[in-house]
Design goal:
InterPro entries: ACT-like_dom_sf, CASTOR_ACT_dom, DUF2241. GO terms for molecular function: transferase activity. This is Acetyltransferase. By secondary structure, the chain is of the alpha+beta class. It has a single domain, classed as VC0802-like. It is built from four helices and seven strands. Strands 1, 2, 3, 4, 5, 6 and 7 form a seven-stranded antiparallel sheet that branches. Helix 3 crosses helix 4. It is globular.
Length: about 140
């Protein structure tokens, strides 16, 4: 399967899906033995390893929550070099007062939004998909 590199086609085929559950952004303490399989995403920062993990895992391990989020996956197979996708959905979400934190996987884009705004975020992304570039 070839990734989509045309912005118009990509917007029309986003197919956003709201994943179940709540997710936390946390910085792991030193010597934390959290298995990689328990994480959704990781990035190494100067201050330590930041991870996105399920709420249940964070609470069970007593990890401090920095951001409680809903996780939306765009199911289109997006080209990592495509220009404008992140700008388009960030603008659409911003216009309705929703912040977004984006993680690009090799195959799909993943958007983390404030948990309480998940339904509005989904409505906004579906409208963007329907209207395509005109809404961007």
């Amino acid at each position: 399967m070839k990734p989509i590199s045309d912005l118009t086609e990509l917007l029309r085929s986003m197919q956003p899906v709201l994943n179940d559950g709540a997710y936390y952004f946390v910085t792991l303490p030193e010597n934390c033995d959290l298995p990689l399989t328990d994480t959704v995403a990781t990035i190494r920062e100067r201050e330590g390893l930041s991870v996105v993990i399920g709420e249940e895992i964070a609470l069970a391990r007593g990890l401090q929550n920095d951001f409680r989020a809903a996780w939306i996956t765009l199911n289109a197979y997006s080209d990592l070099a495509v220009v404008g996708l992140t700008a388009a959905f960030a603008k659409a979400l911003g216009q309705v007062g929703i912040s977004c934190n984006v993680v690009a996987g090799n195959l799909h884009d993943h958007i983390f939004v404030p948990y309480e705004q998940a339904d509005l975020a989904m409505q906004t992304l579906l409208a963007l998909q329907q209207n395509g570039v005109q809404a961007a």
